[in-house]
Amino acid sequence: MRPILIVIAIEALLSQLVRPLFLTSEGYVATLLIINSVLLMWYLLKQADTTPLFLIFVTAFLIRLTLMLVDLELFRLPPHSGDDTEAFHLEGLLIYTDPTTFNEVVRGSYSKFLGLFYLAFGPERMLAQYLNVILGVVSIVILSKTLLLLKLPMHYVLIATGIFAFFAQGLLLSPILLRDQIVALGMVYTLYYMVRWTVEKSAVSLTLAYTGYFVSTVFHSGLAIGILVLLVYFSFYNHETKRMDFEASKVQRLLVQVVLVGFIVYSFQDVLFAKFTHVSQNGQLFSGMSYDRGGSAYLNGLTVTGPLDMIVYSPIRMIYFLFSPFPWQWSSLMNIAIFFADAVFYLLLFGLTMLHLKYLKQHPFGSVLLFMLILFVVNALIFGLGTGNVGTAIRHRYKLFPMLLIVYTSIHYIRYQVLHHFEEVEKRAE
Which of 215, 56, 17, 34 is nearest to 126 (CA)? Predict the structure, then answer.
């Protein structure tokens, strides 16, 4: 990611000088697309460990690029491109035309990000969506590197990376003008650096894991509770025993992280918790947890009015958040398509993960995988409380999909190894 950030910074500086030289904005945009596509291909070639992995990266990029052009030139990609994307674009343009409105936009961090992007590169929506395409492909690269760090065989890496690269929601969210791809990338980086810190106990990896999560939280405050999960893992994991060690000597490490992370959270609370700044009273907060607007709303009669309701109803709301639309909710072809292209993956992966969870303790990276699963469940509970319709659910749960995919793939591999070894022992005994 570092080379990409450097290129973006250089291009942002040069665009102020070069953009006026172009006769049309189309020529300026086309030139940047061509240059950056060539650079991205070179980046993907350098990052791929095998030819099949490179082909997955390139194909994922070309499909996303094509869908971006479809969204911009032909029709808005269903089901996400529409009112929200247009609102973000308009607020970004507002900041571009009048930077003094930066703190007045109502849609939060992504509108401000777009405003800054337009100020740097010009009010070119295609470039903003192209950036999302690049970030989507980078997230695929980082997920593959995470799987390799977990010592998975290459065919497991290829299958899991292929699922993530061509997962329907990834293909539909990456090319459009929404914040979700930035959030997903931050989450993937967090998982990568959690594993890397587990391997090498590096302060840099620890810092970058938190940084990735903070970036995701900036663009969606609902993830904030996951910071507690990271605090526990990074404080109590023992690199010598390769397992969690809840002893008194680790409390000092916890206190240091609580102070540092607490200072960051306190200093940037308006950014990290922007979504909740207007819900200072409990009534307003819990009314947000009963949100059921939209044609695909679910659990309409289930209203959260206080802390007790939140505890009682959170499991059922999490189930609907992760797995809807269930067959009894099918009211259109779109609902059926979403179930088979999206929900069924969560049902199978989560169900098999829980069914074979006992094998996790035999995995050399069992602790970090367990905390990835805990991070998945905690965030699913929070998102479940705040989500009340299928359209919003499939967007938000995509942010959590990498955690589930990595954990399931690792459990599937270690289970196969354990069972295969048991069969070999039986054969030798005979």
Answer: 34
Q: Is 103 helix (H, G, I), strand (E, B) or coil?
A: coil
Tens of pLDDT, residue by residue over 392-425, are 899 999 999 999 999 999 999 999 988 877 555 4
Contacts 24+ apart (CB under 8 A), 112-115: 113/179, 113/182, 113/219, 114/88, 114/89, 114/177, 115/91
Closest by Cα among 311, 325, 305 to 392: 325
Q: Which residues contact 384 (CB under 8 A, 6 or more apart)?
A: 314, 317, 318, 319, 320, 321, 322
Q: Render pLDDT for 190-221 as a digit per residue (tens, 0 to 9).
A: 999 999 999 998 999 999 999 999 999 999 88
What is the reported pTM?
Answer: 0.92
Q: Which ranges of 74-124 does DSSP label H, i.e. alpha helix?
A: 83-97, 109-121
Please name the amino acid found at residue 66: T
Measured CA to CA, the distance from residue 141 to residue 89 in angstroms comes to 28
DSSP code of residue 238? E
Contact between 390 and 399 (Cβ < 8 Å): no
Cβ(195)–Cβ(365) below 8 Å: yes
DSSP line for 170-205: HHHHTTSS-THHHHHHHHHHHHHHHHHHHHH--HHH
How far apart, in Å, are the Cα atoms of 145 and each of 43, 61, 152, 160, 221? 14, 17, 10, 11, 27
Residues of 39-69 as b/e, b for ≥16 C-beta within 10 angstroms?
A: ebeebbeebbeeeebbebbbebbebbbebbe
Left, alpha or beta for 201 (phi > 0: left; psi -120 to 50: alpha)? left
**The two three-digit tokens of residue 343, written as one number:** 């929900």
